[in-house]
């Protein structure tokens, strides 16, 4: 009896193992790529096109990561990245060109600025000072400073020389500084511009910083990489598994051992090496449980000291365009008006910017960042819709003859709430001068005792100069794929 029970148990165990191997490691992969954002998709497609057998595991039910094109209105909306930032030597722009896709510049001029009724700002001076601040932003003082402090000091020097009387106008200064603060923040994902350093290593690519995929959608980039565009058949040596959340990567110094990747659903896969591309936000939250053995101190310090920001979009769709002839609007708050806001509405003070998109007609995108964006993610739809409509009626209402209508649809982003992103993109924070090698430390592959790379790191955060962008993320995927291809195994 006991004997038969043991045999039965053994049979069960063997049966289980076999099933697991059919669903899992029955195939022999050279490389497992974790995450199919820009970095992972570039890495996986580069390796597969070179004939490597690749398995890509993506936690979400779609490819693209922090690029997310969805149908909206009479076209599409980009919930994540929207523009190609610069064209020269851009992997994204070049792919578009080579495939004869037209990408178009989105020109944000003229931009209309609105203050409160009776508190209109001097638009000419405002514009002059914004342009001055943008120019100064590109400069690097010899000693690293918080960006906000640096810009403020320079603007005050400029005013002293050009418009000394403005220095007495506390209200104007307040309005201007808050506006320009949120403007910087919306590019970094920070709560305050003093969280960013002047010592940032970020380098813009030459060319227009706002090239749009318009109605084609940024997802086209991924379709082409994966040979899915125009009903393409994919890549023969690349297997893609969606809804596969990786929970454990087990590796060994022993050159004869494979790397094992375990997923939340219990499936396991093995390969010679793994490229991990998850965001810095995901690494911060999970690195302690994700790797076995744990990451070394160099890597955990990098993960700890670097920062990822949050940018939020609220998109309102209208049955027709009711707003004045401009594709972008600035809302210029006064401190007095901020103080009138009840506590639960204070976040509106930091919503200072709305713009049209080239993905559809008749919608406006409202931008938020840092703690404001995090907070908005937690608010209910109807409240957000109502408050943003109030904002429009307050700022633009007095300037037009019609009543600003209710939107017919709304879309919102949840990049902080999303457990597979936990933020939008990294920025160089005040610790950057102290930890100048953090990004390259994170990018360093983990090798076995014979020096072969086993766990490789890609993703936007690992790009020392082009972080925070789709082209920069793609560069890192290409970098790690090339590292493996050069090691002709
Ligand atoms: C709102 C917003 C606006 C932006 N605007 C622009 C812009 O205009 N231009 C620009 O160039 N850049 C922009 N960016 C930045 C750009 O989108 C990112 O830098 C880039 O897409 C990051 O790519 P990545 O491959 O490094 O990471 P990701 O795209 O985050 O890819 C990582 C993938 O890993 C997956 N993953 C996470 N955890 C796991 C797990 N445990 N198991 C399996 N898979 C997992 C994720 O689901 C994700 O698909 C924007 C980003 C956001 C969010
Ligand atoms: C792009 O257009 C050129 C010129 O018309 C053509 O030679 C080329 O084959 C096209 N490329 C693709 C990928 O369609
Ligand atoms: C930024 O830092 C400067 C200098 O420390 C300070 O004067 C200014 O108030 C700060 N700005 C904000 C918005 O906190
Ligand atoms: C408005 O939002 C866009 C997109 O983030 C940004 O590039 C621009 O600087 C913002 N402008 C202002 C005035 O905040
Ligand atoms: C792709 O396939 C779908 C369904 O099979 C078809 O409707 C569509 O026209 C095809 N698109 C192209 C570009 O061939
Ligand atoms: C609004 O932005 C300021 C910095 O300009 C910040 O101090 C404040 O916390 C933000 N408010 C909210 C609700 O996020
Ligand atoms: C509003 O209506 C008045 C009177 O009809 C007109 O003179 C003015 O130009 C209109 N303003 C706008 C912004 O349309």
TrEMBL record:
<keyword id="KW-0732">Signal</keyword>
<dbReference type="Pfam" id="PF01593">
    <property type="entry name" value="Amino_oxidase"/>
</dbReference>
<feature type="signal peptide">
    <location>
        <begin position="1"/>
        <end position="19"/>
    </location>
</feature>
<dbReference type="InterPro" id="IPR002937">
    <property type="entry name" value="Amino_oxidase"/>
</dbReference>
<feature type="domain" description="Amine oxidase">
    <location>
        <begin position="39"/>
        <end position="485"/>
    </location>
</feature>
<dbReference type="InterPro" id="IPR036188">
    <property type="entry name" value="FAD/NAD-bd_sf"/>
</dbReference>
<protein>
    <submittedName>
        <fullName>Spermine oxidase-like</fullName>
    </submittedName>
</protein>
<dbReference type="InterPro" id="IPR050281">
    <property type="entry name" value="Flavin_monoamine_oxidase"/>
</dbReference>
């Amino acid at each position: 009896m006991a004997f038969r029970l043991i045999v039965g148990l053994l049979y069960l165990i063997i049966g289980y193992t076999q099933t697991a191997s059919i669903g899992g490691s029955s195939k022999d992969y050279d490389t497992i790529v974790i995450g199919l954002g820009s970095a992972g998709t570039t890495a996986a497609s580069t390796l597969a096109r070179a004939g490597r057998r690749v398995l890509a595991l993506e936690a979400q039910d779609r490819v693209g990561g922090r690029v997310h094109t969805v149908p909206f209105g009479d076209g599409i909306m980009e919930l994540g990245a929207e523009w190609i930032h610069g064209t020269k030597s851009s992997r994204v722009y070049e792919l578009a060109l080579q495939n004869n896709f037209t990408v178009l510049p989105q020109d944000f001029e003229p931009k209309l600025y609105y203050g409160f009724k009776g508190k209109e700002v001097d638009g000419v001076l405002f514009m002059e000072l914004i342009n001055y601040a943008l120019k100064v932003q590109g400069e690097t003082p010899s000693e690293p400073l918080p960006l906000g402090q640096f810009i403020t000091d320079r603007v005050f020097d400029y005013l002293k020389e050009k418009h000394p009387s403005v220095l007495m106008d506390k209200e104007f200064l307040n309005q201007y500084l808050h506006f320009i603060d949120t403007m910087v923040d919306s590019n970094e994902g920070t709560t305050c511009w003093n969280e960013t350093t002047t010592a940032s290593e970020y380098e813009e690519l030459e060319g227009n910083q706002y090239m749009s995929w318009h109605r084609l959608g940024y997802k086209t980039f991924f379709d082409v990489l994966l040979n899915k565009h125009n009903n393409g058949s994919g890549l023969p040596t690349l297997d893609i598994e969606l809804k596969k959340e990786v929970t454990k990567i087990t590796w060994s110094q022993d050159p004869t051992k494979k790397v094992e990747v375990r997923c939340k659903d219990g499936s396991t896969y093995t390969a010679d090496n793994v490229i991990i591309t998850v965001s810095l936000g995901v690494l911060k939250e999970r690195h302690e449980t994700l790797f076995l053995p744990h990451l070394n101190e160099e890597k955990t310090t990098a993960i700890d000291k670097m920062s990822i920001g949050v940018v939020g979009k609220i998109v309102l769709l209208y049955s027709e365009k009711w707003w004045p002839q401009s594709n972008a609007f600035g809302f210029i708050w006064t401190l007095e008006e901020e103080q009138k806001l009840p506590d639960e509405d204070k976040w509106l003070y930091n919503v200072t910017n709305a713009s049209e998109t080239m993905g559809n007609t008749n919608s406006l995108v409202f931008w938020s960042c840092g703690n404001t964006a995090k907070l908005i993610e937690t608010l209910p739809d109807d409240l957000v819709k109502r408050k943003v409509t109030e904002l429009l009626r307050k700022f633009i209402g007095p300037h037009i003859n019609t009543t600003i209508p209710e939107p017919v649809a709304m879309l919102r982003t949840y990049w902080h709430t999303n457990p597979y992103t936990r933020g939008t993109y990294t920025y160089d924070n005040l610790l950057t001068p102290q930890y100048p090698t953090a990004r390259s430390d994170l990018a360093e592959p983990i090798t076995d005792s014979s020096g072969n790379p086993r766990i490789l790191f890609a993703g936007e955060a690992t790009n020392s100069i082009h972080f925070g962008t789709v082209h920069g993320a793609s560069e890192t995927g290409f970098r790690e794929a090339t590292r493996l291809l050069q090691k002709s195994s």
